[in-house]
Amino acid sequence: MSSPLKDVWALSRQMVGHFVENVAPCGTLPGDAIYGDVTTITRTCLELAVSVLDGKNIPDKIDRLKEAAAQWAREGVPIDTIHHSIHEGFKIGFDLVVTSAATKHRAAGSADDTVMTLSLADYDALMGGAKLVVEMLDTMTTAVSMAYVRELKSVVSEHHTAVHTLTSALLGGHPTSTMARECGIEIADSYRILALAIPPHPDESNPMLDAKVVARRKLRRLQAELATRCDNAALSLLSVDGGTLLIPAHHHTDDQLDDLVTALSRAARVPITATVVTTGTDTIPTAADQAHQLLDMVARLHCEPALYRFDDLALE
To answer: Which residues are CB-neighbours of 188 under 8 A, at least 6 positions away?
Structure first.
């Protein structure tokens, strides 16, 4: 079965050409990536396929595939593009194997090519080959998925740490351009500082459920909605009970903040109460204190969950 796949250099170039023509997102990759990394990993996958079919050891090729998947995760190559390319490659390879087998079968059989018969041995070989193909596909997609997700979690963790560090610096009045560059986040000229109070989800008091798990899920839903609504421009220090948001003033108008708080409440599935103060970057610590003082006042007055501004509470 492996004989049609052994010219891995020529076949990998053919496959990559097919990817560029038929797997649209690959066309957006730089040329050096397509004819460098992509071709190399396609060749690795072919070598892996040949090794599996020949019953040889494959760990080193799996490791190379994992390294490539991790690199693509860091570069932002969509995982569906990777999997689609793997499946397209399998189609090409499987077609080559079947065509080769059919040709050999005809050569060994009668001159009448219109009648194809399978012996029991042929059938067993076909079924064994099909199982190997499924096993190869499972091995490759599992390796790619695990390495991709692991690296993606690492990237997300790094970004979260960077955001946490920069937010803490801004709230402490110690931001630096060097820190911003290291975090990969641009510091805006002014921010809308939101102080948030996040009440417990009803399921947190359910004795049949783990309250900590329910609370963490509530917070993750809120953070996901915040990232979507603010295009990852918002800086935050949040816990399951609340915290502080720093949103660049140019990103959201004051009128849009009410919709944002409503959307965050809907995502968290709890009624969030918030206050907002707009300020320049150099006065963020003072403004954050003011926002939280307003939030404390809202709590003492037992106001309805909503977004409150200083003007709303001027009399109080």
So the answer is: 248, 249, 250, 251, 281
What is the secondary structure of 169-208 as a DSSP string?
A: HHHTT---HHHHHHHT-PPPSEEEEEEEE-PPPGGGG-TT
Instruction: List CB contacts of 146: < 8 A, sequence separation 6 or more.
Output: 66
Using CA atoms, how far apart are residues 85 and 83, in angstroms rounded to an integer? Answer: 5
Mean pLDDT, the chain, rounded, equals 80
Between the alpha carbon of residue 138 and those of residues 86, 142, 145, 213, 293, the distances in Å are 11, 6, 10, 32, 56
* Contact present, 170 and 187 (Cβ < 8 Å): yes
pLDDT tens digits, residue range 55-106? Answer: 666 777 788 888 888 887 887 778 887 787 777 777 777 777 666 656 665 6
Q: What is the pLDDT of residues 98-125, one digit of tens each?
A: 666 566 656 665 445 544 555 666 667 7
At 224-276, the pLDDT tens digits run 899 888 887 888 899 999 999 999 998 888 889 999 999 999 999 999 999 99
Q: What confidence tens digit (pLDDT) does each residue in 267-287 have?
A: 999 999 999 999 998 899 999
3-state SS class at 123: helix
Q: E strands of the chain, at which residues?
A: 190-197, 235-239, 242-248, 273-280, 307-309
Closest CA to 310 of 273, 261, 276: 276
CB of 247 closer than 8 Å to CB of 230: yes
Q: How many CB atoms lie within 10 A of CB 314?
A: 7
**Residue that is written with structure tokens 């996901």 in the block:** 224
Q: What is the DSSP string of 14-44?
A: HHHHHHHHHSGGGGGS-HHHIIIIIHHHHHH
